[in-house]
Structure prediction request, 106 residues.
Amino acid sequence: MTTPTHLLVHRYTPGTGPQEGTPELDAEMKVWARIDADLRKAGQLVEGWALNTATATLGAVESNSGTQVTFAVHAIVVDSDDAAEQVAADMPHLSYGSTTIHPLMD
Prediction:
């Protein structure tokens, strides 16, 4: 297995963006599938995961994401932080959510 260099953590604010069962969500899901396919073809996608709602949050420190909910994560292989930003910039939810880029430690 290829070792990822970066994690892309995708978040959105509940109640924003395309809603379940709408043509808009269907269209966005096709964009996500195309992005995954393109990253795989380029050898950049190690794995991607869609997440269910968190079942617990532990610890005394509040999340720094405010009201946003993490819904997916991509593990990618790229040559630089700038390349990771270029990948993240194509994510279809950026008008109503965010993607944080985490370089992984050796």
In short: The two ends are 16 Å apart (CA to CA). Residues 17 and 96 are 6 Å apart (CA to CA).
